[in-house]
Amino acid sequence: MEQRKISGKQAGETTARLPAAEEQKALEALTATEREILKLVVAGRRNAEVAAALGLSPRTVETYRGRLMRKLHLGDLPALVKLAIRHGLTSVD
Questions:
Q1: CA distance linking residue 61 with residue 68, whole number of Å
Q2: Distance (Å, whole) CA 35 – CA 77
Q3: Which CATH architecture has domain 19-86?
Q4: pLDDT number for residue 16
Q5: Looking at the chain, which terminus has fewer C-beta neighbours within 10 angstroms, N or C?
Q6: Are the beta carbons of 30 and 87 closer than 8 angstroms?
């Protein structure tokens, strides 16, 4: 299944990054499923792969991804990866 790019408007993109403390609070507010999807996505897994790993439909994964992008005030995947690196959720290796 094709991955859809989440536009800034859909993701609730803001022009400025959240302050570190607010970013941390936003991460803590994610559900367990959103955190798991975050980790798999920043590891390079596609929606279909994430869906298979978690027993969800690809469309459900898209919905979760959009929700976590809005909660974190991010507009694209590179911003999500940077946030994950900053907070130790993934590494550059």
A1: 10
A2: 15
A3: Orthogonal Bundle (1.10)
A4: 67
A5: C
A6: no
Give the integer Cα–Cα distance in Å for 28 and 7: 24
Query: Can you list the pairs that 55-63 forms with residues at least 24 positions away whose Cβ atoms lie under 8 Å?
Result: 58/1, 61/37, 62/3, 62/4
Task: Single out the residue of 76, 74, 53 nearest to residue 4, CA to CA.
Answer: 76
Residue 64 class from Cβ within 10 Å (0-12 exposed, 13-18 middle, 19+ buried)? Answer: buried
Query: In the structure encoding, which two tokens stand for residue 12, read together?
Result: 């609730």
What's the CA gap between 5 and 74, in Å, rounded?
12
Domain segments of the chain as ranges? 19-86
What is the block-wise mean pLDDT of the chain (93 residues), using blocks of 10 residues? Answer: 48 61 92 95 96 97 95 93 91 78
Region of 7 (left: φ > 0; alpha: ψ -120 to 50; beta: rest) is: beta
CB 47 within 8 A of CB 61: yes
